[in-house]
Q: What sequence folds into this?
């Protein structure tokens, strides 16, 4: 029998059923799109010749369809070869052969990211089922807050009890907050009836309550403790008792990188400098890594696998800066300090070295980020076990969700418009399919979204057909494209075990993102590109409001959001509702010609019924504010008045 060390830790399987479904859909949908554009081109030539139909609205519809088809084509790269991986943790080598790992946790503002949630993440990382002497947890505080530093010290005190408790009883849930809020029978099923476990659990629960109280008391001045500019600071959290065994606990370090007003700062990049669709992309040399919940080898971060062994130290310093200790750490042969050495860590010389690394100017005049580090790229794999490895906090109200997605959309557009745009930068370095996936820019949905929310409706009111008659064969073509897209979307949702309601909510959120997030991100990216605007990182508020959380659990939308986010959506909804009602008489006269256009407002009205509910029927505090509704009515009236201008050309 083969040794467990020679067997693979994971095996990749092609999802053949999904692959066949995906490729069949790609083939049929692509043929339909080709036929659609044939119809559009021939019809456009007739319009140009006869001028019986306004040209401008027809051109805008064609442009929107081209944008949609282009985005769809890019997305199909991730559908071409979906794979999944089976992992075998039982094949891991003995503890003494496991490599050391570092866990990075990022926070920025204790007023928007409550310390209790951040510290639960830190404690969860410290409680990983991994040898303590090979585990290091770093908390990167972008705000340099004394509230966060106090909280991490309190977290260490509680972790001194929690980590041994987790390991003694082999707990499956190792986040304290999740553990104590879970059903006892599911959390402690192995030790039900054990008196020793019950006594230890009671002690731990009491200590956790004290830990919560200490953090809540210290968080009173959370907003005042946040600092925009501050000096670097690195603190290793240790016991006051020097006699304790350092091998019992992982290393915990609090890191603050220097921030100055005259130096550009990249959020999360200071202390990490590594954070830069998934099953399908796993089959294309690996998915992208963004945000959190991923593991990277040092070689992937530093690009050291291409460094020659006999390279001169001067060249290394040109790439990685002047720190000798940092250069030593980039090689596989580097060994972290042993737990026994941590008692005297950090020495004054090493502390000075760390302060140098954490300064704003360390990587000035180096090749870091240009010819060194993740510039060279990596190959990654995607693992999605039945039981999630990580669970994070998500916005529970519409405002924070849309703000978060606006920030994400802006980041994607900034890359698209930069010199590292995947349209030009990755084509020579990646396969065609991988380049297509990275070139997918969902923000461009804003163009067809506003076009299809306004143009067909205006033409419906004036009896101008934009689509083939119901009695014509080409009508079946357009109907197929519409139905095919939504059926494939539902199939993807159902394949993950989610419900029709999840598919509907996903469609709603997609429309809301297109109407607000993508609009503002697109506008902000253009202004930044021409030098009229400077973008700033907008932190998502993670403070939980009980009333908002209750609505979220009940599946009720909370419309306590900025008017800038709600007015575009509500205005379009009112406009579509009005045009559909006014256009009904036209359907009795020209139903064969105008029925396809009536589908657009009807579909939007049905899918986004929650907007009508928030504006008209709801009376709770989470409804759409009356002032927003009135402003939306006024804007929709302006669209009505300006509509005829589109028909002049």
A:
């Amino acid at each position: 029998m083969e040794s467990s060390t020679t067997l693979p830790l994971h095996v990749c399987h092609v999802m053949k059923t999904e692959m066949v479904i995906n490729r069949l859909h790609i083939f049929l949908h692509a043929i339909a799109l080709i036929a659609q554009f044939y119809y559009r081109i021939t019809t456009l030539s007739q319009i140009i010749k006869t001028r019986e139909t306004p040209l401008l609205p027809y051109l805008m519809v064609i442009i929107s369809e081209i944008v949609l088809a282009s985005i769809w084509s890019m997305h199909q790269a991730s559908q071409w070869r979906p794979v999944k991986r089976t992992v075998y943790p039982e094949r891991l080598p003995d503890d003494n052969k496991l490599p050391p790992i570092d866990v990075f946790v990022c926070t920025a503002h204790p007023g928007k990211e409550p310390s209790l949630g951040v510290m639960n993440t830190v404690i969860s990382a410290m409680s990983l089922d991994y040898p303590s002497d090979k585990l290091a947890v770093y908390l990167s505080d972008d705000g340099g807050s004394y509230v966060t530093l106090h909280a991490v010290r309190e977290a260490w005190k509680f972790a001194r009890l929690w980590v041994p408790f987790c390991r003694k009883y082999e707990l499956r849930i190792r986040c304290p907050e999740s553990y104590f809020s879970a059903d006892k029978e599911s959390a402690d099923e192995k030790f039900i009836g054990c008196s020793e476990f019950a006594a230890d659990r009671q002690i731990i629960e009491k200590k956790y309550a004290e830990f919560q109280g200490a953090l809540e008391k210290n968080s009173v001045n959370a907003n005042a403790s946040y600092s925009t500019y501050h000096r670097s600071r690195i603190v290793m959290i240790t016991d006051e008792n020097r006699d304790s065994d350092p091998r019992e606990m992982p290393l915990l370090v609090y890191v603050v990188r220097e921030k100055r007003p005259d130096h550009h700062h990249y959020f999360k990049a200071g202390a990490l400098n590594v954070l830069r669709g998934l099953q399908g992309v796993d089959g294309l040399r690996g998915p992208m890594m963004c945000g959190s919940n991923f593991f990277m080898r040092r070689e992937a971060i530093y690009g050291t696998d291409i460094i020659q062994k006999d390279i001169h130290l001067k060249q290394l310093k040109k790439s990685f800066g002047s720190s000798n200790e940092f250069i030593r750490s980039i090689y596989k042969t580097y060994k972290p300090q042993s737990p026994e050495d941590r008692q005297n860590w950090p020495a004054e010389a090493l502390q000075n070295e760390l302060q140098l690394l954490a300064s704003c100017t360390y990587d000035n005049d180096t090749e870091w980020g240009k010819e060194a580090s993740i510039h060279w790229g990596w190959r990654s794999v995607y693992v999605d076990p039945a039981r999630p490895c990580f669970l994070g906090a998500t916005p529970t109200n519409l405002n924070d969700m849309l703000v978060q997605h606006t920030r994400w959309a802006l980041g994607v557009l900034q890359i698209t418009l930069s010199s590292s745009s995947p349209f030009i930068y990755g084509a020579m370095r990646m396969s065609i399919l991988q380049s297509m996936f990275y070139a997918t820019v969902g923000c461009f949905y804003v163009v067809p979204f506003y076009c299809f929310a306004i143009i067909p409706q205006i033409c419906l009111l004036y009896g101008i057909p934009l689509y083939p008659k119901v009695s014509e064969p080409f009508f079946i073509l357009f109907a197929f494209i519409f139905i095919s897209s939504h059926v494939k979307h539902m199939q993807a949702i159902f394949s993950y075990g989610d419900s029709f309601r999840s598919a509907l909510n996903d469609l709603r959120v997609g429309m809301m993102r297109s109407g607000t997030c993508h609009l503002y991100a697109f506008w902000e990216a253009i202004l930044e590109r021409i030098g009229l605007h400077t973008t700033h990182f907008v932190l998502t508020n993670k403070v939980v409001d009980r009333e908002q959380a209750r609505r979220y659990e009940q599946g009720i939308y909370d419309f306590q959001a900025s008017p800038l986010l709600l007015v575009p959506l509500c205005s379009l909804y009112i406009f579509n509702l009005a045009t559909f009602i006014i256009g009904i008489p036209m359907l009795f006269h020209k139903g064969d010609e105008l029925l396809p256009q009536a589908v657009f407002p009807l579909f939007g009205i049905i899918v986004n019924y929650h907007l009508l509910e928030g504006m008209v029927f709801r009376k709770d505090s989470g409804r759409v504010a009356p002032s927003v509704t009135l402003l939306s009515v006024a804007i929709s009236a302006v669209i009505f008045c300006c509509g005829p201008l589109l028909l002049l050309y």
Remarks:
- Residues 99-275 form one domain.
